[in-house]
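Chapter summary example: a protein plus zinc ion.
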Amino acid sequence: MKEDVKLLIEELMGTCESLDVASAAVGVVLMDLTMDDWADFDGEIFNCESCGWWFESHENNEGLCQGCYEDELEEELEDSYDKEIDKMESNLKKEPDFTNHRSESEWN
Ligand SMILES: [Zn+2]
């Protein structure tokens, strides 16, 4: 792997720096990097689409870091849960409501 690529990865890893800022910081000219260099780069590090932080490539879950991926899953679960609740509530509203219509005194 080219030294420039290593420098860039070291600079970015665990940060939310932009490529431009990081490359300027370590004195790497992005235009000088080849397709192979970028392949090496992508093999080591990726930028989470959600939080914008850089993580090791093996932590990449469909473009998201582990944390964001889990958040996403949880949100999906919550969404479907909310929809279930809504469905149940609207079903309940359709049912005639036999409770709470009569006050205690009416029964006496
Ligand atoms: Zn993330």
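Key point: DSSP finds five helices and two strands in the chain.
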